[in-house]
Amino acid sequence: MSLIKVRRNGQVTLPSSLRQRTKLNVGDVLEAKLENGKITLTPASLIDRHIAESQEQIKKGQFYGPFDTADEMIESLHRNGKTSKRPVKRPARI
């Protein structure tokens, strides 16, 4: 068992041996619960992690949109994305 000190703003550092055994990496998201007076930390699902990453990108202004049409989104991808060697096939307009 390891002792962990609660630091400023409630921050804690998990021992490296514990992080290695649980295969936790920088940027992983943990869910904190209080159960029977004990705090438990559980790795969140991959979807929760992607949601958290997306929220960080939105806070930093690293997103495009919203778009009113799919064509607007495709044009934005062409303006802001990397160029592709393959031509993009656009669906026929109805």
In brief:
The chain has a single domain, classed as Ribbon (Pemi-like Protein 1, Chain: D). 33% of the residues lie in helices and 13% in strands. It contains 3 helices and 2 strands, in the order αββαα.
Mean pLDDT: 84
Report the uncertain regions.
none
Name of the top-level CATH class: Mainly Beta
Shape: elongated
State the helical fraction. Answer: 25-40%
What is the C-alpha radius of gyration, as a whole number of Å?
A: 21 Å
- The percent range for strand residues is 5-15%
- What is the CATH architecture descriptor? Ribbon
Overall structural class, as computed from helix and strand content, comes to alpha+beta
Number of helices: 3
- CATH topology, which one? Pemi-like Protein 1, Chain: D
Task: Count all strands and give the number.
Answer: 2
Largest sheet: 2 strands, antiparallel
Q: Largest sheet, order of strands side by side?
A: 1-2
Count of all domains: 1
What does this structure look like?
The chain is an alpha+beta fold and 94 residues long. The protein has one domain: Pemi-like Protein 1, Chain: D (Ribbon). Helix content is 33%, strand content 13%. It contains 3 helices and 2 strands. The protein has helices at 16-21, 46-59, 70-80, and strands at residues 30-35, 38-43. Strands 1-2 form a two-stranded antiparallel sheet. The model has no long low-confidence stretch (mean pLDDT 84).
